[in-house]
Amino acid sequence: MKIIDEQDKAKRILKELAGYYFDNGICNFDINVEFNSKALTITIAGDIEEEPKSFKSLMKDLSLPRQIDIDEYYNALLGSHTHYHDDYSLLGEAIDEVEGKFEGQRLTIKLVRKQ
Predict the structure, then answer these.
(1) Is 28 within 8 Å of 46 (Cβ atoms)?
(2) Where are the domains of the chain?
(3) Closest-CA residue to 79 (of 20, 29, 26)
(4) Any bridge partners for residue 4, and if so which?
(5) C-beta atoms surrounding 75 within 10 Å
(6) CATH architecture of 3-114
(7) How far apart are CA 35 and CA 21, in angstroms?
(8) Rg of the Cα trace of the chain?
(9) Residue 13 phi, psi dihedral angles, 5° rounding
């Protein structure tokens, strides 16, 4: 897979994650991106007083198995949302692993997409 294609997918994934945080009123958050020949790892964390009502649904969507055979189709759709939405199944089917937690008014999501 070309590195430029994977970087484009990384941008789309970042847009989806940032959109979720903004949609839930989290306007101050940190993003860490690790991109190498083995995987893309993104960690996003921000402060919010209470766990978003949609967080459990988000984690369920992000935990769906990756669908490699239709990866390019998902890539075309990822990041295309321009308004609030609550279906992140496409993102879940574009990644391999996810961890999420809400602790001490901090919402953290870490996801991995293997090359």
Answers:
(1) yes
(2) 3-114
(3) 20
(4) none
(5) 17
(6) 2-Layer Sandwich (3.30)
(7) 22
(8) 13
(9) -65, -45
For residue 78, the 8-state DSSP code is T
Q: Residue 18: pLDDT above 50?
A: yes
> Among residues 45, 43, 52, which one has the least CA distance to residue 29?
45
Residue pLDDT, tens place only, 71-106: 666 666 665 554 446 788 888 988 999 999 999 999
Alpha-carbon 98 to chain mean position: 8
In angstroms, rounded to a whole number, what is the distance separating the alpha carbons of residues 107 and 10? 20
Cβ atoms of 113 and 67 closer than 8 Å: no
Residue 70: half-sphere exposure toward Cβ, Cα within 13 Å: 10
